[in-house]
Amino acid sequence: MQKSFVKKLFGFLSEMEFYIKIALSCTIFQQGIYWLLRDVKLSFIPQVFLYWLVGSVSFYGIGLAIEKLIKPNQALAENLNVRVKKVRKQEFPTFTFKGILVGELKSFCAAALILYLAPEVYRGNDLWLNFSWFLMRIIVADFCFYVAHWLFHRKFLQKFHLKHHEFSDSSSFVAGHKSVIEYLVVSITDILPIFIFGYDITQLCAWTVIGNAYNLEGHSSLSIFFIPSDFHDLHHSCFKGNYGIHGFWDRVFNTLNSPTKKPSPMFPITTLENFMSNP
Questions:
Q1: What is the rounded distance in angstroms from the CA atom of residue 123 to the CA atom of residue 126?
Q2: By the 8 A CB rule, do 200 and 122 touch?
Q3: What's the pLDDT at 24?
Q4: Can you give the residue ranges of every domain in the chain?
Q5: CB contact at 8 A, 195 and 177
Q6: What's the pTM?
Q7: Which helix (H) or strand (E) holds 194?
């Protein structure tokens, strides 16, 4: 009984660690973006272009860094990989001009829709306000994503999600491999938290960088900083469970397929749990 409680406690703490990492990382990036834009007043169209550009550059930049710099380093990749279920290696779709163009058009439309519908609230460089916004944002965004993702695994919506599940093996860029319907629904879930909290363009730019980082990492099969390497791997290989960004809402709704926790400086709660379990 006591061991079960301790296990659940450390599971909860590791999920809180994820939320705090996101909020802190976003706050640091937001401060840098605020410093760059502090004397610049941006109207709607420049904001859309900035939001879209930051999102696109960070998506391809982070994805290529994972796939072309980290994964080819065999020793590093093995150290960051804790898969418990081996899957068949697959060839991933190659980039094409048409594919990139369509993807960027969808991204630009999503950016315009979000900024057009959501209320703008200027928050400047107040650290506490920004940290609180990011913390609430990730918790609510995780819930919205959990609900949408869970629905995509029900029979009446499953066909729209199968494109994303063409791959049991995982690559960072699988994160962007979605049908148009799924992309639209995911964009809507991204709008909902902003309606609750409002947005500052510097916050959204920071959010999209860190959001791309944990989304790409979550599909990379590596534990780099935010997410255990097999959390989303288990979802792709089992086609059920682990519907959230991380494990909090899966734990709440009893759909968690527990990932392997490998101690490392990047995951201090896991390191502490391992230390207490093996004194």
A1: 7
A2: yes
A3: 96
A4: 2-277
A5: no
A6: 0.88
A7: helix 180-197
